[in-house]
Design goal:
mainly alpha; globular
């Protein structure tokens, strides 16, 4: 038997290390779920952080991994939100989880249809096309007010208890547990996706589409697929907002919603799945604190933070996390060594 070449072994080890869970990831999710019991008085804002993190995760899938920039990602967010609200208001689907899945599938269908428009042209064209889709849906929702509620929003949606047992309360207790669970499940799917051969091919397409096409990668098919998946994630995020607030409005389609999402991703960083979630935490905490401190001028301070990030650079700002990242890498390296040693022992005759 011919032994594998060193380059193949190095690539395999790199891919394994890339897909392996790091200690800080476990800490992140343990804290997120522990907040269900430890921070009950903050569940309303934590619920907002959860659906915003999922929304940012959906944009990161197309921007950070496929290089598709969008100014109208709110189109899928609002579409999913209105589907969930309409299903609840007219009692078409009483189970919130099933309505959430239907909203995600509906948003995926919309993403698939519009993806062929997005593939045409350069980044500037994509910006205008995605923005146009969001504005078009907003005007349609406003035009057919008899169905959507128009400028007043879709009111009267009564969200039934989860699995017929857990009621949505005004303090957000059920809403946060529900939202963070959905976020975690979809994060696991996204994590598996980006670490798969499909995810690696997306990174290749982002880096050099012509070279990727030359080696046999179907560029357009992969871009359509990831755009459709990201649209479904955004639709589920919108449905979470509609279900936890029992309300849907035209503001869900607004340009401000898409712009805030880009800001969240800039703060947290694109190209690694935690960037959008960390950015959502920072953005919402800043918004909550600054709006209470200076209700009229809080956007100024968030804009100032954005300017500092651009001028100084995220790497310099996050240098204080270096010891923690080194510790996590050291622990991960030791775990890999132990696993490799155990594997070698098991292969001995």
């Amino acid at each position: 038997m011919i032994p594998p070449r060193p380059t193949i072994l190095a690539a395999t080890e790199w891919l394994s290390a890339r897909a392996r869970w790091h200690p800080l990831e476990f800490v992140f999710w343990i804290v997120a779920f522990a907040a269900i019991w430890l921070m009950p008085e903050r569940h309303l804002i934590l619920t907002e952080i959860a659906w915003l993190a999922l929304f940012a995760l959906s944009l990161d899938l197309i921007l950070g991994y496929a290089g598709i920039i969008s100014l109208g990602h709110a189109a899928f967010f609002g579409f999913g939100g209105y589907i969930a609200a309409l299903l609840a208001k007219y009692e078409i689907v009483n189970e919130p989880v099933l309505a959430l899945l239907i909203a995600g599938v509906g948003a995926m269908a919309l993403g698939f249809v519009t993806s062929f428009l997005v593939l045409r042209g350069s980044d500037l064209t994509r910006l205008m096309v995605t923005l146009g889709v969001a504005l078009l849906l907003r005007e349609l929702a406003n035009r057919y007010g008899w169905l959507t509620g128009g400028a007043d929003g879709l009111q009267g949606a009564i969200i039934q208890p989860l699995f017929g047992t857990f009621r949505f309360d005004m303090f957000g207790h059920t809403g946060y547990a529900y939202s963070v669970t959905v976020l975690f499940i979809l994060f696991l799917i996204a994590r598996r996706l980006v670490n798969s051969p499909f995810g690696l091919s997306l990174m290749s397409v982002k880096g050099n589409p012509l070279r990727s096409s030359a080696i046999g990668i179907s560029v357009d098919a992969r871009l359509v697929a990831i755009y459709t998946i990201a649209a479904g994630y955004a639709g589920i995020a919108g449905a979470l907002l509609a279900q936890t607030t029992a309300f849907a409005s035209l503001e869900m389609f607004s340009f401000d919603r898409s712009a805030d999402l880009l800001l969240v991703l800039i703060i947290g960083g694109a190209g690694y799945l935690y960037g959008g979630m960390i950015g959502a935490i920072i953005f919402k905490v800043m918004q909550d604190y600054l709006s209470a401190l200076t209700p009229q001028y809080w956007p100024f301070w968030i804009g100032l933070v954005l300017v500092v990030i651009v001028l100084v650079g995220r790497d310099r700002i996050t240098t204080w996390t270096t010891p923690f990242r080194r510790l996590a890498a050291r622990l991960d390296w030791r775990a890999a060594r132990r696993a490799a040693a155990a594997s070698n022992e098991g292969q001995k005759p």
